[in-house]
What we know:
By secondary structure, the chain is mostly helical. It has helices spanning about 10-25, 40-45, 55-75, 80-110. The two termini are about 35 Å apart. The relative contact order is 0.09.
Amino acid sequence: MQPEWQRAGLAKTLLLHLSNQLSGQGLTELWSGYRVGNEASKAWHEAVGFVVEPDFFTLGLEWAFQAHELEHRRLLGLLSHEEEEALRTEVSRLWNEKERLEEVFFERRKSRV
């Protein structure tokens, strides 16, 4: 949306109209998304009632990047022992969090069926 039209209530009005139309057709769930890091969009989605789903996919990408970075820098000899341990800890943390969120996500999906 063009900046001059933002914060004028148009998106909320469109969402309410769409929601009413879909509800009239028996649909009870609407999904939307926003870019990671766009806090204004996240706040809007939450304010109009969207529930933030766990984002295990993004965490998986972050884990893959950090794991690659660890191996790349390790092979080039660019890491001190402390830096390597810190990166290993972060890679492990990201993996565990991704696994936890993936489990939560699929449990929520099962409960909706």
